[in-house]
Amino acid sequence: MLSTMQDVPLLISRILTHGSTIHGSSQVTTWTGEPEPHRRTYAEIGARAAQLAHALGDDLGVARDDRIATLMWNNAEHVEAYFAIPSMGAVLHTLNLRLPPEQLIWIVHHAADRVVIANGSLLPLLAPLLPHLKTLEHVIVSGPGDRAPLTEAAATAGVRVHEYEELLAGKPTAYDWPELDERQAAAMCYTSGTTGDPKGVVYSHRSVYLHSMQVNMAESMGLTDRDTSLVVVPQFHVNAWGLPHATFMTGVNLLMPDRFLQPAPLAEMIERERPTHAAAVPTIWQGLLGELTANPREVSSLTQVTIGGSACPPALMEAFDRLGMRVCHAWGMTETSPLGTVARPPAHAVGTDEEFGYRITQGRFPTGVEARLTGPGGERLPWDGRSAGELEVRGPWIAAAYYNGPDGEPQRPEDKFTEDGWLKTGDVGTISPDGFLTLTDRAKDVIKSGGEWISSVELENALMAHPAVAEAAVVAVPDEKWGERPLATVVLREGADAGFETLRTFLQDEAKIAKWQLPERWTILPAVPKTSVGKFDKKVLRRQYAAGELEITEI
Ligand code: ADP
Q1: Confidence of residue 194 (pLDDT cuts 50, 70, 90)
Q2: What domains lie within the chain, and their CATH numbers?
Q3: Closest C-alpha to ligand 1, atom 21
Q4: Residue (of 501, 448, 503) closest to 477 by Cα position
Q5: Residue 448 bears catalytic tag
Q6: Which DSSP category does 303 fall into?
Q7: Which residues contact 138 (CB under 8 A, 6 or more apart)?
Q8: CB 67 less than 6 A from any atom of ligand 1
Q9: Which residue(s) pair with 449 in the sheet?
């Protein structure tokens, strides 16, 4: 028997219409580096999204399913693109502006982007690529920045250049958004390729809608129109963790840092604009912590901080707790939209000694994300908090495939999807009986020493708890006797001094790391190499070690 309920498709245009009317006075504030930031209401964003859709359709001939790329910072215009492009039936493709040029070219070509909307400040990056972007017909430029580098390159490449504001001017401020199939492509994002070639994930209207509702749950970020969220996580990194869509459902004010992502302007933004929430990867928070320690500011408004993208070191969480900013740890991937788990401690643990232990896990699975652990032999492992295996997930906002292979069909590589359609995350960990995930490593980063596994993350967290250590990354290096052994790469805090012997003793005595897991190879680095989304780039470290470029001390 079928239900008697209405079957209204879950479309991004509905989120836009809701946000720009019911929450029309909520604001998107964009940092400009000038004395005053730029402010735009949700109502204005709605009107301008309609204008952008008219411009794309009428002036540029954008049709259903066309891929429209953005090469932009987090700002109001990027939010407009987020809503206009999918709502009109085209596909938003956010480009990661930190990728090396050859990867960007590869990705634009693979997605067959017809149009790119670019921030003026990024034209020096875009212009040299134009001759290689064969599918590209139009560039729309928005915001400050010299246009000169683009003009000549565009003429040679046969690409037409438009000014964003000129395109929008005079266009109708309402749009009759089409009634699309909710399973249609809305947006695409390529994985940042930390462990291999970038792969395209294509989100549907339905997956974005359901994921946004999850982001809004009290168990997740739980924000309301009384909040202002500082969205440091880039809009090109898994839809800024779903925040722009989720906030339009609830009227949360957005504070967008544009290109001002350094610790000092972030600290100034927090003091002046008084956000209540912020989201970013741990490296951003490490930087901000250093800045706030050196130059204290009035940042008491910021009480909730979402950290994800890589493991949050416990020492970082404790440091933010001391500042009155409560860290909420979350796990996810490009393939999971990204919210997969959120670490809100269960009621019985709140206020007890157990609470921190829960908060430092990757978190609990929400309704909508089913999880299972698979052992090395393919066996299903119990949720006992001890048995470690590869995490597999499924759900309505989890990828079932990657964007097209050479045959033009979606790809389901065996190492990423199981035969019964679950996503293999490549993350290794345990799940407690009450559903909390603890990741010990990425499958590719785990150190296999004499048949036993050593968690690189555990060693890193332990090292970063030492007061002299600013950052630490641990990678597996080949070892004649054991197969692999850990190499500890350490960045010391400014002015701090600690010998390797001291750090090793600290690992053993304070962090209670088993003796056989202690690294014997050590090196000091000026900074840990980072990926395009700010994670430790272990591929680079392994390569540098293999090439003999690191000065190793053995103890
Ligand atoms: P890439 O795979 O290119 O790094 P993603 O942003 O999709 O791009 O990264 C997802 C991966 O990041 C996860 O599979 C996991 O390894 C890691 N990750 C994300 N959040 C966390 C977290 N809270 N703790 C540990 N690892 C995390």
Answers
A1: low
A2: 8-25+38-199 (3.40.50.12780), 445-554 (3.30.300.30)
A3: 310
A4: 448
A5: yes
A6: -
A7: 60, 114, 115, 116, 159, 160, 161, 162
A8: no
A9: 452, 483
